[in-house]
Amino acid sequence: MTADTNPLFSNLRVVELASMILAPSAAVILADYGAEVIKVEPPKTGDLNRNWHRKINGLPISDMAYGFEVDNRNKKSVVLNLKSADAYAALCKIISEADVLITNYRLKALDKLKLDYESIRAINPRIIYALATGFGEEGEEAHKPGYDTVSYWSRSGIEHQIFPYEGWLAQFPYGSGDHPSGMALFGSIMTGLYQREKTGEGCKVSTSLLANGAWSNAVMLQAQLAGAEFREKRPRENAYNFISLHYPTSDDRLLKMSMVNTAKDWRPFCNAIDRNDLPEDARFCDNEARIANMPTLIKESFRDNTEAADCALAAEVGAGGCATHCCVQLRRGCKR
Hints:
Oligomer: single chain
Shape: elongated
Structural class: alpha/beta
Number of domains: 2
Radius of gyration: 25 Å
Strand order of the largest sheet: 3-2-1-4-5-6
CATH class of the largest domain: Alpha Beta
């Protein structure tokens, strides 16, 4: 967003009662567009995400709380012990003048602290109350805590889809399920504000990590509901499609391709990897033949993996981002 002397949401006040990523990531979008976001943090520890990069083994090492910075820029912060009557009264005063309240506190904690929707609505009927949870508000898991590694990735079935044939799966990037879920929460807040513009009344909106994970994996879930027959997982040498694989280059990086229209792009691709013989081979001349001979094609297309991948990379650089319309892309910085 470019600098603006009159930001879009400069007239909005947002109260954030949240920690970690999902809910704060929705609030930071509002802040980026000019909203006054007041982040309420507990004494001593503050938002756990202030120091989480030091506590999770394997994350990049830095003195800067880079994870916290991503989701909390452009915000104000206030420390309140919400178990204190005076602090609760101070919070109620802030809420009474707010347009939006965003929280990811667990449902039982919200009830105990009198921060549930009905309690907040009594203070400010026009407020948009935005709730983020791990598993939703109904059912036997409603009160369970949830992080994206399980609620978004595992429980939705996404992890199963990408789990490799050969073994274990590496850790997902930090917050990579929270951030798309935060965008959904932001969208729901916008819907609530639009409804308020029409009716003059506030409302409650909500989303969950599980719901967003299910939406991300919706095609496969719908296939399951439709009774589709799922294919078995295969090892690399017998993959369903050679295009889905990664290929090493001479400088120890990995080449990733995207070739949607194989009928159109097959010959240009073969030219890019200096294998003009492949389209003339009866085993690989059309899509049906390539599918029937996929294990052989996987070996033949990049017979000399490093040399052919370098050819494809050279074609990418020379053709403005694609190998003669083949969309050969390099995942820079990915080591084997």
